[in-house]
Design a protein that fits this description.
The chain has a single domain, classed as Alpha-Beta Plaits (2-Layer Sandwich), CATH 3.30.70. Helix content is 17%, strand content 11%. Strands 1-4 form a two-stranded antiparallel ribbon. A two-stranded antiparallel ribbon has the order 2-3. Strand 2 and strand 3 form a beta hairpin. The chain is globular and about 30 Å long.
Length: 111
């Protein structure tokens, strides 16, 4: 079992969750975080730390978020590991309650 970062994280990218992870299984993209499913130990420490409720247990992932299981797995193989909390994007607050953010997911770091 793994935890999954869902759509609410897009453009918010709060890193409170990263700070509590005992196995450093978070990976950072330009505007989103993901959890590596093979590294997550299902400890559940990250879930309550997320200020936008973007982290779900795999078995509690809402139906409309199921594609994020694959997104997390795929992008965790491409993005760099993040192990420490850092400042969120300047406009994160503006994105907190925005629905349907999938189209805003940036998969590649700017060159």
């Amino acid at each position: 079992m793994t935890f999954v970062v869902g759509e609410s994280c897009i453009n918010c990218k709060y890193t409170d969750c990263v700070e509590v992870c005992p196995v450093d299984c978070f990976y950072e993209g330009p505007n989103f975080l993901v959890i590596h499913p093979d590294e997550c130990i299902d400890c559940a420490l990250c879930e309550p730390e997320c200020p936008v409720d973007a982290i779900f247990s795999e078995d509690e992932l809402p139906d409309d978020q199921e594609e994020f299981l694959k997104i997390n797995a795929d992008l965790a193989e491409e993005w760099p590991n993040i192990t420490e909390m850092k400042a969120s994007p300047e406009n994160a607050k503006q994105w907190e309650d925005v629905p349907n953010k999938r189209e805003h997911l940036v998969r590649e770091w700017p060159a």
